[in-house]
Amino acid sequence: MKILVLNCGSSSVKYQLIDIDKNYPLAKGLVSRIGMSEAVLTHKPHDRPEVKITGEIIDHIVAIEYVISILLSPNHGVIKDKSEIGAVGHRVVHGGEKFPESVLINSEVMVELRNCIELAPLHNPHNIRGINACQKILLNIPQVAVFDTAFHQQMPKHAYIYGLPYILYKKHGIRRYGFHGTSHYYVSRRASELLKKPANEVNIITCHLGNGASMAAVKEGISIDTSMGFTPLEGLLMGTRCGDLDPAVILHVMAREELSLQEANTLLNKHSGMQGISGHSSDMRDIIQEAKEGHANSRLALDIYCYRIKKYIGAYAVAMGGMNALVFTAGIGENSPLIRERCCEGLEFLGIELDEGRNEEAIGVEALISKDKSKVKVFAIPTNEELVIAQETKKVLEVNTFLKDIVKGV
Ligand code: AMP
Question: Which CATH architecture has domain 2-146?
Fold first, then answer.
């Protein structure tokens, strides 16, 4: 079966068509600058060179129509008929408590998804726009929602309740949800495979270090704590997000700088993190380069970035009562030996011993990067959220077919 995986953002649609029987992407691509005059569709079939097409793409419906057209195109396509797409799997950022697992989309689910907009106003509306567009274009093809929050839904209450009046949890759902769930799930499962142990016999700390960054404590296969919270703002220092902060700071700054709610939101989400500290860039490659050239605030941004990751490693090792593996993934985790080295520096007392040569060589590939004698194995593992979404989509369809058969008495 071929499954179309979609990740719809405010002005972009990222896609992969995956042959789920072979766990293999037939084509992948990105539509960017949706709604702007010069939108770009970048498409890469698995067996031919990448192509770029520029034009006006006014909304997500047109963007997904373009995606389907190029998947069908005689020159760049990988399928002959739309009906070859067996299902669509959508990345949905927030599923709240309502969706602890992936779900087949129907009208009731759509109502619940709309209810979740309140929890993720920056993300969920675009995911929903993508689902609506597919419903119009792909009519009867089943669609499945796979949630970034789902993997963290088994966290114990003591890890997800904040020190606020409990009524706020009951009334408004204020709690830690956690994000990047499909990534933490994928790399933690891959790590247990590399350890040659079942997932429920190992404790793993996963570090998803991209533009957005989060860590998870995966104890015996279950995420028992994670650094992002009610929104993806909490936790590690990120490209443009502040991460952990005394909540009183924002009240103080809002009063002193006379900021509106919207302005405060933009300050925390878009102008903070490495961007805010360095004053130059949110991109780790730039920060590393500037730090090498002696830029004091870029050095400081790097110091804070790595220090915070180390603090979470310590916290999660304790929360799990010890660990078997530490995993680095996403843009920075997969590609930066320097950051991995700095995050592991001085952690020998925890049993973490990085191998310099292995670490230097592991760029964009799956690799063991700790010494053979290291008690805790350290891995670089490229994440594969699309594959997890496709696998989840297949699983949901199989369960639903099975249930239908039972009802029919087959
Ligand atoms: P992602 O959000 O997973 O695409 O990751 C984006 C981040 O990865 C950006 O901060 C990039 O600067 C960073 N990144 C990509 N390649 C490298 C590299 N070779 N060294 C350091 N950071 C990198």
Answer: 2-Layer Sandwich (3.30)
